[in-house]
Amino acid sequence: IEKPVIYENKKGEVKKILASAADKQEIMEKYTDMKDSTDEWLSEQFDKMGEGMHFISVWGNHSVKKRPKEYVLGSEISFAGADYLGEDYVINGMYNPEEYFTWTQGKEMEMMFYIPEGKGEKLVFEMDIAGILSTKQDVEAKVNGEDVYSNTLHENDTKLEFEFECPQDGWVDIKFSLPDAVSPNSLGVSIDTRELAVSVKKLVINRK
């Protein structure tokens, strides 16, 4: 094996990295330790390597994930077909995009943003939705571990919106809880066995 190999779990968390010291820059540009804004620990793991390929095990208080693209406040992120931009920010919990929207996957969904221009400010998250599966969907959201949203979406609802404070390091981790996610097959409406909750059209983050 000559190229680095990244081992992730279903939540998008890196558990192991197989790489050489020469791969440091490439890995550090693509991944970051969410528990260490300086990435000092991850950097040290490469500096301690000898020649050849070595494993880095991510353990303890460290949480290494794909580094999100820098987000510019006010820019629209589309989740529709050929215009889909979600892959730069979605860590886990969404299916492949369809023509007009993208469905959430399972009972949890996580997004990550790096918003340096919003450090320390009150921001507003606005998500346009195409619809929900079933007659209602309970939705909760946490930003960096703090509760910011709890609501029940109904069939005619078209927007999910909440305010949050951007931390001083600019890193924004948004986790959605979708306990009512269900498959169309189990409802008897189609043969689709995917576990669905909310279909997302687009989102934007602005200053309050």
- CATH top level of the largest domain is Mainly Beta
Helical content (DSSP H or I, runs of 4+): under 10%
DSSP strand count: 15
Name the CATH architecture of the largest domain. Sandwich
Oligomer: single chain
Low-confidence stretches: none
Radius of gyration: 19 Å
Q: Structural class, please?
A: mainly beta
Which fold does the CATH topology of the largest domain refer to?
Jelly Rolls
Count of helical segments?
A: 3
Q: Which shape, going by the Cα principal axes? A: globular
Describe, in plain words, how this protein is organized in 3D.
With 208 residues, this protein is mainly β. It folds into two domains: 5-66, no CATH class; 77-207, Sandwich (Jelly Rolls). 9% of the residues lie in helices and 42% in strands. The chain is built from three helices and 15 strands. The strands form three sheets. Strands 1, 2, 3, 4 and 5 form a five-stranded antiparallel sheet that branches. Strand 11 (136-143) and strand 12 (146-154) form a beta hairpin. The longest helix is centred in the first third of the chain and has 8 residues, at 40-47.
Short description:
This protein is mostly beta strands and 208 residues long. It is built from three helices and 15 strands.
Notable traits:
15 strands, mainly beta, 208 residues, Jelly Rolls, five-stranded antiparallel beta sheet, 3 helices
Topology at a glance:
Blueprint: E1 5-8, E2 13-19, H1 24-30, E3 31-33, H2 40-47, E4 54-57, E5 64-66, E6 77-78, E7 90-92, E8 102-103, E9 108-114, E10 122-132, E11 136-143, E12 146-154, E13 159-165, E14 171-177, H3 184-187, E15 198-207
Antiparallel strand pairs: 1-2, 2-4, 2-5, 3-5, 6-15, 7-9, 8-15, 9-14, 10-13, 10-15, 11-12, 11-14
